[in-house]
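ok so i was messing around last nite and threw this chain in just to see what happens. nothing serious, just curious
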Amino acid sequence: MFAWMAWTLPVAVFFTCIVLMLAGMTVWEIKSPTVVRKGFLPIATTRGDRLFIGLLAAAYVNLAFVALSERMIDWFGLESEPSIWIGFVLSMLLLALIMRKG
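result:
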């Protein structure tokens, strides 16, 4: 069923984090209903809205990092492609920023 997917450790960790976030947000919403607020995003959002926007942004950061990692060898004079963990950490930091300040 999942043979089409390249299940490397970073991919498995990324999807595990998404599942844990969705489960955590569900429990958090049941325990403490959300309040609409306005942060740096141009719209008023709930926690669920910020999670969705943050997950989309994290996915785009990961895709951009994968797309540009081969070119980074030439740009920065690297010996090999940078680790995919760098893209993962950057995307999770962006997600955390959106969740906290968005």
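not much to say yet. The chain is about 70% helix and 5% strand.
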